[in-house]
Amino acid sequence: MNKYQYPVEVHSHTYHSDGQFSVSELVDAAVDFGYKGLILTDHNSSAGYLEMAEVEAVKSGALVTLHGMEWTTYFGHMLAHDADYDVDWREATVDTIDDYMAEVRAANGLVGIAHPFDIGSPICTGCHWDFRVKDFSLVNYIEIWNSNSPQAKLESVLAYELWLGKLLEGYEISCSAGRDWHRPDGPDANMGVTYVELAAGKALTPATFKEALRSGSYYITLGPRVQFSVGDWHMGDRVGAGKLAEGGAGEGGSATAEAGADGGAAAEVRVAVTPTELRDLKQFPVTHAVVSVWNNNTLLHQSEPVAELGGDGFEVVFALDTAAVKPGFVRFEVRGDFRGVENTLVVVGNPIYVK
């Protein structure tokens, strides 16, 4: 079953901290780019969010917004998304960050580790993540792509490896992309875009936007659009291995099914890849695209390269023996030649979690 997908940005700034945008300028730039959702995350301030409600695109529903803040400390930057109140960051220490993440979560907020491997002191004191997290179940997502040209940064590779390592340890943590948007970009800029995924017919609202982020019902991309399913299950779903071949929840990210005792059924895996529809990213085509599907660290399927990603794109379909699927997760990614570099990671999907 296809899903509705909406491009959103979850890491942005205005002149309420160190950005060059006014709130209205940021909203207008977001609508012009093609975003349908936006979270303002000024450094240690949520003042700009109060202005958003008065901007025409927000009042009309053209852009859905959530409250946010980027905690900016000496030990790391943390995205606190849509908590019921602004949790005080000032007393957090290297060894007590779990207590503060727990408070954000208790306040109905979402926690993201921002650019964990950015350079730190003395170039950018606090930009590197030095907090000692004891319980990564308190973390909703790790930002593996930050700012422009994330595909060209060693920091992205290290963040991707951190995220994947935590998945393999059993944590249900999503990967995220943050444009870390401070100012208008030049015409040659490329950035990671987040697509939240909702059940067909469901509109993007503050509630559905937040729930998609909470459950992990989204993927990040340098351009291509992707529809991924295992049977009727999609990113963010929780399912027993023996149920993978059975019907999903239909709402995305909310289903949990117990594993069957016998297993052995086959589930159809579909990965449909299409070109970007975003104007500013059309200048960066992906060639020789390859789809990979993983169960934990086991490669389940890898497609043949598709020389040109044009028109209606392409689809990869294969049968998955659910009896062979191990508890953990099933996920996809797409690699291809991008901006002159071969085998670039261009799309990363968040997992279907297998119990």
From TrEMBL:
Domain Polymerase/histidinol phosphatase N-terminal: 8-75
Classification via Gene3D superfamilies: Metal-dependent hydrolases (3.20.20.140)
Signal peptide residue numbers: none
InterPro entries per UniProt: PHP_dom, PHP_domain, Pol/His_phosphatase_N, Pol/histidinol_Pase-like
A Pfam entry, by short name: PHP
Protein name: CehA/McbA family metallohydrolase
Annotated organism of origin: Fundicoccus culcitae
Lineage: Bacteria, Bacillati, Bacillota, Bacilli, Lactobacillales
